[in-house]
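Archive entry. Fields below.
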Amino acid sequence: MVEALALDPRRLIRGEEPLVYTIDLKKYFPVKGLIFTKGYVKAVDGVTIAVPRGKTLGLVGESGSGKTTLGRVILRLEEPTSGKIFFDGRDVLKFKGEELRRFRRRAQIIFQDPYGSLNPRMTVFDLIMEPVRVHKIRVGDPQEFVARLLEKVGLNETHMFRYPHEFSGGQRQRIAIARVLALNPEFIVLDEPTSALDVSVQAQILNLLKDLQRERGLTYLFISHDLGVVRYMSDYIAVMYLGKIVEMGPAEEVFEKPLHPYTQALLSAIPVPDPEVASRRKRMRLQGEPPSPLNPPRGCRFRTRCPLAFSKCTEEPPLEEVERNHWVACWAVSGS
Amino acid sequence: MVVPEGCDPIIEVRDLKVNFYTYAGVVKAIDGVTFTICRGETYCLVGETGCGKSVTSKALTRLIQPPGRIEGGEIYYYPEPGKRVDILKLSEKELRRIRGSEITYVYQDPSAALDPLYTIGYQVAETMKAHGLVSRIKEGVRRAVDILRTVAMPDPEVRVRSYPHELSGGMKQRSVIGMAIANRPKLLIADEPTTALDVTIQAQIMDLLLELKRKTGMTLLLITHNLGLVAEYCDRAAVMYAGRIVEEAPVRELFKNPLHPYTQALLKAVPNPLARMDKLESIPGSVPDLIRPPRGCRFHPRCPLRMDVCSRERPPEVLRGRGHRVACWLYTDEGGVAGG
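PREDICTED_STRUCTURE:
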């Protein structure tokens, strides 16, 4: 049997240096019964991934796959049940005091809902300056500093003393981005940053994020259920299903040559904005729905919906490298 | 008015206007919308938040609630070829016979469409009883098992006794679709039916809708913001922007040869999962405030090709090719000259 621990995250993506990586990371949430704990939701169950410096790792999966939990655990917004997280070569779980505070500045998150993530009683100026004050960063003239940031994200200084309710969803997401940039972070978890926005505005925000990455060498973990958006944003892709990574590799390769049956099904389920292609491509339809994460199937978690499932699938398939940097956890693909 | 050849209309909407009277002012949500849905087709209203696609679909059975009001236009429903019903002149009682029976709705959020206190079977039976298809609830519940089987609900005999909270999102939406088809509607209006669901479940639900349509011969009106769904599942589509239809065409034509600058920009702004894209084009600015909509063409403040006339006068509808109409000055004689 192959132990998940045998996987060295630094070798997942050869030719790149990981800024962030995890080893066999687990996050279980207890489910309370009347008196005793009834069981655990294994939201993240043994995940080993690497995010290369200056690049974007796209994390895709359906609701309940654990992608958001994974992002939060990596930032230590939730304490993991077990496993390790490394940031810039150092063990994140050992950070304390000043060191933890520095990590909190260098690693940031942008949330999906720009309506819920900004305090409605603070002006844009205060919203942006709050984290700066918390981290005691010297910025010179605060107004000039905020004005520069606003310009950077496509707003301007006339917006500085307004409140969040005066802005549209897209503008609010720009404010959230400015707020994060104020701390000059290196790593940003983007958790469905455009899911609440209309397509015409979504494109603006995605392009802004790409420009900022190029300019500042930012490293992104981009979480989304929208495969079109993920393909546009990512250099590498990791596909999650019920708490596990089932496939991981260079974005182009995963999209052009998906190997795991779940990835294939996911790609063939997305409606494509091109009627010519839509009528020609072959479809693969999944039966049923994802099982409950409280009681996932033994072995490969996808086997209950998998068209290729066979007896071996009751054992857990290890993540194996099938082609350079392209990893798959599937008995039908890796054989043996 | 553009109607495809051989079209047997089931719905005709002419110059529809809907306003919402709010404290902030009058929201001109629908401003002169005209279209025809042909019997048996899948027609689509596509657009972004606030473009008026849902309001338009609700107006079809006069479901607009105060402070909203239908302020003008005509809506005709043809239960069968040649038989015309003027929706705006019906009494509330006559309308109720059509709504929920001949014309039914499926909305985005299945939890909101189901009553948490009743079983799925009871709720399906209730719709049938309300429209006289069965005389007793008990009989309806028995028939509900077949209906749940039709919508591919797993274990229909068990699920008929389930309460909504016991079902997943996909199963709830299947139940709602079951309620909507229980009375064998002629027109099913699906308003973002899969937006709350995961993609693999979305595919199942869309396939189900199309299969039901094929089996029963009903007409489907799909309201969506998702251009992928339009491309995969619709016959004809109308693109809406700020309360107006800016372009209407058969789906293949619309994607191959989009004419309106808004449609063109929208298609370039959607990331395509099956193609490599180096740069997404974004549309600058955001959707206008419909209390004070821009004069002339409502898209002109964001339009890369705007001309003087665009901010002065509303663009007329121009017919370009088969069943393809566009409301844009670029395609008129005046605009063509001014633009060229």
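CURATOR_NOTE: Chain B touches chain A through 47 residues (CB under 8 Å).
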